[in-house]
C-alpha cells in the first residue's frame, strides 16, 4: 500500500483514542480543567454511566468569548508556552489536547463566561466541528456538557462495560480528586441522585469519611506531619529540594484483596505507579497477611523539575528523576507511622458494626506485647527463608497424616509417611469450605441460616448501584437481601457457614469485586472464595487435638488440598531426607 497522510478526521479520532478511553477519562480531563481554572465548587453530573451525558460545572475563571473556539483546537493551551515550561509544570493540564480529543468523539456544549464580560458564550461542537458559537447569558465560570460519547466511533462504544462499572470508575475518580483537593467542594450526581458530596472545608479526614465511611476512616493513621506540615492541606506544594509525604494509611488490621484503595498523588496529581504500591507493601511486610493490600491515601510533594509528567497522554503515569529516593522516602514515612501509632492486631476479629465498607476493628494490645508480637512476626519471615524447607509438592491427594499438635495457634504440625507437615489452619479450613460450598452451589443446595432478627446494612451512596444487580446472584449463595428504602438493606438469611459478625466484611468485599466489573455470571468462584475466606477459622484460634484431627481429616477429603485461592502455600513439607540432612545424618 502506498504511504499517505491520514485525513485530519481520522487522525484526530486516533489521537482522541489515547486520551479518551472511557467516560471516566472525559470526567478526569474536565475536572482537571476546572481545578486549573481556580474553581472552588465543582459539580459533576452523569447519566448512564457517563456515556449518555457528563456535565462538569465550575466557578473558575471562564474563557473569553473570542478564545472559546480556540480551546478546542489541537495543542491549544493557556498553561504553558515554551519548552522550558515543560520542566516546571504546576497545573494539571499542559498538553492542550483534552478538549479537542473529547470533542472529536462526542457532542459537546460549552457555556462559559469570564467575570469581566457582560454576557458569556455558548459553543457547540459535533464530532469536532463547531455547529454553534454565539453570545449567551450565563454566570461566571464554565459548564461543559459531553453527550453521546463514542457515538461516531462504534468500535469504542462496544468496549464500554456495564453502566454500573463505568459509573464506579467515575465515582473512584471524583473520590480521588476530592481527596487530593479537600479545600474544593465536589458534588457528584448520578442519574439525578446525589452520589458523593464533599464540603470543601480543607480537611482530608472529612473527605475520607465520605469516601470510605466513618468506621474505616476512624481506623486510618495519619502520616505524622513533619516540619512541613503546612503543606498537608490546601496549598500547592512549593518547589523544594526534598520529597515530602503525608496522608492517611491503614492500620495493619485494615487490608483488602486488591490494590484499588491505594491512592497516590504526586504534586496533587492522581497517578498510578507500581513502585509506590511496592513501597507500601514493603512497609507493611510481616504486619499484614501475604496477598492482602493496605488501604492508603498518600500525597507526595516534590520539586516539579524532579518528576516528568509528560509520559502518557492521560498524564496518569509519571517518571521520577530519583525513583529510589522516592521509594525510600515513602517506605520510611509509612513504616514510621505504622510502628509509631498502630495498635497491633490479634488475628481474631471482633464483630464490627454492621456497615459495609467498614473494616475489621483492631484490638489494642499493651506495648510490651505488641513488641513481642512484632518480633515474632519478623522471626517468622526469617524462618520461611531457610532453604531446606520447601512447600509441599503439587500432589493430588494428601497422605494420611498423624496430628502432633498446634504451633503458634496458626499451624497444625503433623507426621506423614515421608516426614513432617506444617499446615496453615486458616488456609486448610478455607480450602475445605470452598470445595464444600462449591458442591452445594452447583447442586443448588447451599445451606443458609435464617437470622432471628434481620441484619440492617447501611451502604454508602456510591455503593448502592453496585449491590442492586448482585442481590439476585447472591440468593444462590444463601443470602436474602432486600432493599429497605434509601441506602438501607435488610439481610434475612446468610450462608450457614458464615457467622453474623462476618457479614459486613463479606458484603464489603463483594462490593469491591462488583466495582471491578466482574460479570455476575462468572463471579461464582470469587463469591465462594470470599465467603470461604471469612467463614474459615483464623490464625490465633486455639484448636484441641480432636479439632485439629477433624480438620486434617476433612482436608484429606478435598480434591486439591495443596491449593489456596490466594496463591500462598497452605502447607510446608519437611521430608525425612531433608530432616536427616539437616541433622547431619547423611
Ligand atoms: P490543557 O488543559 O492541557 O491546557 P485542554 O484541552 O484541557 O488543554 O483545555 C484547553 C484550554 O481551554 C485550557 O488551557 C484552558 O485555557 C481552557 N479551559 C478548558 N477548560 C476550562 C475551564 N473549565 N475553565 C477555564 N478555562 C478552561
Ligand atoms: Mg486540560
Topology summary:
Blueprint: H1 8-19, H2 23-36, E1 41-47, E2 53-58, H3 98-104, E3 107-113, E4 120-126, E5 129-136, E6 141-147, H4 154-159, H5 163-180, E7 185-190, E8 193-197, H6 204-212, H7 214-218, E9 220-222, E10 244-250, E11 255-256, E12 262-266, E13 269-271, H8 274-283, E14 293-294, E15 296-301, E16 307-308, E17 319-320, H9 323-341, H10 367-384, E18 390-391, E19 402-407, E20 411-416, E21 419-424, H11 425-442, E22 448-458, H12 461-467, H13 471-475, E23 480-483, E24 488-495, H14 503-515, H15 524-535, H16 545-557, E25 571-574, H17 576-582
Parallel strand pairs: 1-7, 12-15
Antiparallel strand pairs: 1-2, 2-6, 3-4, 3-6, 4-5, 7-8, 9-10, 10-15, 11-14, 12-13, 16-17, 18-25, 19-20, 20-21, 21-25, 22-24, 23-24
Helix pairs in contact: 1-3, 2-5, 5-6, 5-12, 8-9, 11-15, 11-16, 14-15
This protein binds adenosine-5'-diphosphate (ADP) and magnesium ion (MG).
Structure description:
- The protein has 586 residues and is α+β, with helices and mostly antiparallel strands.
- The chain has 3 domains: 8-197, 2-Layer Sandwich (Heat Shock Protein 90), CATH 3.30.565; 204-341, Ribosomal Protein S5, domain 2; 399-586, 2-Layer Sandwich (formyl-coa transferase, domain 3), CATH 3.30.1540.
- The chain has 17 helices and 25 strands.
- The strands form 6 sheets. An 8-stranded mixed β-sheet has the order 5-4-3-6-2-1-7-8, covered by helices on one side. A 5-stranded mixed β-sheet has the order 9-10-15-12-13.
- A hairpin with a 3-residue loop joins strand 19 (402-407) and strand 20.
- The longest helix is centred in the middle third of the chain and has 19 residues, at 323-341.
- Adenosine-5'-diphosphate (ADP) is lined by residues 29, 33-34, 37, 58, 60-63, 71, 76-79, 93-99, 142.
- Adenosine-5'-diphosphate binds next to helix 2 and helix 3.
